[in-house]
Design brief:
It is built from no helices and 11 strands. The strands form 2 sheets. Strands 2, 4, 5, 6, 9, 10 and 11 form a 7-stranded mixed β-sheet that branches. Strands 1-3-8-7 form a 4-stranded antiparallel β-sheet, with no helix packed on it. It is globular, with a radius of gyration of 13 Å. The N and C termini lie far apart (about 40 Å).
Length: about 110
Amino acid sequence: QVQLVESGGGSVQAGESLKLSCAASGSPFSIEPTGWYRQAPGKERELVAYRRSGGSTDYADSVKGRFTMTRANAKNMLYLQMSNLKPEDTAMYYCARGDPPHSWGQGTQVTVSS
């Protein structure tokens, strides 16, 4: 059974940075697409960053140039480096794997104050 566990969330000021981590158990991350998603209160879950099996990564327009998704295959870890955070980035962040996603973590909260 695949399990995903996110960590690294917190409360920061606008302009600061955070790095989220996602640890996977079970089959390696490297064999399927992976992504970071977020959901703000009262809003639908949205895709933040998506990495295809071939390795190319897409980002939501709202985070391009500020967020970077990386993967450490040997450790079965997924990361989301978030820089120049804005209040509108406040949300619960989830990692997921598969297309469509079939496994989700429990989420880690990111709160950005102005």
